[in-house]
Write a structure and sequence with these properties.
mainly alpha, 69 residues, elongated
Length: 69
């Protein structure tokens, strides 16, 4: 389960970083496409991802799982 846990954390970290880059480009007017969802939807998503990462990091400490993000 520890390897699956690490993989889940790693995959979420990659997706979080990608979304963060997209939102920065959106804010600076350099996004190469027109999003179909409103910005508020992306704001909810990035917040949920941040919260989920925090939970996984806390669990990793409690369960003695070393993460490389």
């Amino acid at each position: 389960y520890k390897e699956r846990f690490k993989a889940e954390f790693c995959q979420l970290s990659i997706r979080y970083s990608g979304l963060k880059v997209m939102l920065k480009k959106w804010d600076t007017g350099t996004l190469e496409f027109e999003p179909t969802c409103p910005r508020s939807t992306y704001n909810m998503q990035i917040k949920a991802m941040e919260d989920y990462l925090a939970v996984l990091e806390a669990r990793a400490v409690m369960e003695g799982i070393e993460l490389q993000a």
